[in-house]
Amino acid sequence: MLWIYYALIKGNAMLLITINTFCCVIETGYIAAYLFFAPKKARIVALKLFLLFNVFGFGVVCLLTLLLAKGASRIKILGYICMAFALSVFVAPLCIVRKVIRTKSVEFMPFPLSFFLTLGAIMWFFYGFLIRDLNVAIPNVIGFIFGVLQMVLYLIYKNSKKVLNQQPKLQELSEHIVDVLKLSTIVCSELMTPVVPQLNAVENEVIIEDQTMLTKQIEEITKAKQIIDPST
Q: Is 16 exposed, middle or buried (0-12, 13-18, 19+ CB in 10 A)?
């Protein structure tokens, strides 16, 4: 929206108008899909951000630049604002980069997105450079750097195990261990209770089966602990 407004004020920038109009349509579809599928709390937060930036913020920018600035100074101020928001777009994936490094998983950083982000940054840089518009060219230098960084991280961690998918399994395994420990405690307490000296053959078999079950449970607990913590 800001780039369309910038192109309209500057004039003779049909590519900025057409491409960013198409982008607005696509991004509106993304927002609509998010609002449709998101939980109620996340939906409210998204609506607040949408109203804050896309309605109130954009309206304030338009009013201030139209009323307080004129001519070349208006284009210059608006160009700085567009540059700042363009930089924020390229810096935003840093949170995903941090998650990739921490989890060693590229599950949330698809390669096609990083590749086309880098390719788009290169093309927009040359476009801004050739028409001598630094407001378009400079942010895409940063975009190119971050795009290359994301692709390098993808190549480094693409074959790594998905740690995020393993965490729920480890949690389930921990809960299973707790259940087995409780069960083994009950069995131990039952085995340690005084037994009447006169036992028949059936009762002897029951005790032997309980002892066998307890031994298997102890082995299972040991294996499970070694899976979670190999140093155990």
A: buried
For residues 8 and 17, the answer to whether their CB atoms sit within 8 Å is yes
Through-space distance between the first and last CA atoms of the chain, rounded to whole angstroms: 57
The set of residues, in sequence order, having a beta carbon less than 8 Å from that of 103 and lying 6+ positions away, is 163, 164
Residue 54, CA atoms < 13 Å, CB-side half-sphere: 11
Sequence-ordered alpha helix ranges (H) in the chain: 2-10, 14-37, 40-50, 58-68, 71-91, 94-103, 111-130, 134-157, 163-192, 201-228
How many other C-beta atoms are found inside a 10 Å radius of the C-beta of residue 225? 15
CA 132 to chain centre: 36
At 80 the pLDDT is 92
DSSP-derived letter for residue 133 is: -
Encode pLDDT of 14-67 as tens digits: 889 999 999 999 999 999 999 999 999 999 999 999 999 999 999 999 999 998
* Cut 0.70: pTM above it: no
Query: Hey, what amino acid is at 160?
Result: S
The tokens of 32 are what?
């609509």
- What is the number of other CB atoms lying within 10 angstroms of the CB of residue 81? 17
**DSSP letters of 26-44?**
HHHHHHHHHHHHS-HHHHH
Which residue type occupies 131? I
pLDDT tens digit string along 185-231? 554 555 455 544 455 555 666 667 777 787 877 888 877 777 766 66
| 3-class secondary structure, 231 | coil
